[in-house]
Write a structure and sequence with these properties.
Keywords: Endoplasmic reticulum, Signal, Transport. The protein is 27% helix and 39% strand. The chain has a domain at 201-275. It has seven helices and ten strands.
Amino acid sequence: PPAMCPQTKRRLNRLFHHGPVAGGRRGGHDGVARSTLADLLLSAEPSPQEVRNLLLSVVHAETGRLLLRRTHAMLATQHPSSSPIREVLRDPIVNNYDRFSAAGLSSSRSGYVSRGRGSMVTFDLDLLFSDTGMLRRSDLEVLVRSGAGQQLPALQVSLEAEGFDSFVGGDAPAEDDADKRSDARMAAALLGVSLRPVTFFRGYADLLTKMWASGSEPTSVARALALLQRHTQILRLQSGLPTVVEIEAAMGLDITGVMEVSLWSAQSHTRINSR
């Protein structure tokens, strides 16, 4: 994203601002798509005016809450785009109680996993909920950043669900879920290499089938192993004997999950563990 060309950035801005309008009328893209577009634009060295337009154009409560929390989280980890964000937040029209007191569950959190002189490892966690309180999308990203401004995406895990508002007994489906059936899926990437997406279920019948077939133990969803370094060197000892030194370094990813659904209380609990 930092190397995004002006044509691509203009196209993303047009897609983002072509969103739902006030008053509940449908149009444009849903909250999941707009939050993804906003994250791309905020990570692509935006100008202060672009940041201002992003923060002032969101009318959907949950999407707007996530975007505001995301900008504050980027300030906490010294993100490369923190300078224009800090400048825009000095404006009371953007940064005021009326905007930041909006009700909702969506949130964003950033922090340091480790921090040294020449590099740092940060994490970003975004949670987007629907109007009825159901989780729509969860994004976890772990980045390795160097002092020179370079960054490496070490781990990315994205969970997305839709069509659950009527399933849990909501009064009416949310605007984003009105025309979608219930399904849940996950996408993961390790060191910038995307793994094959995983679909947990599609539709209510598939959900019940997998729920009764699964046990109480965690089920493995995805596993991956990435080779980080391979080094071979021949050292000659004082006695004249050659010694071969081989060094291999790898990083593995194991994602497991447990799903519990109660038809009596119309509640569901999902636990995803990644290591």
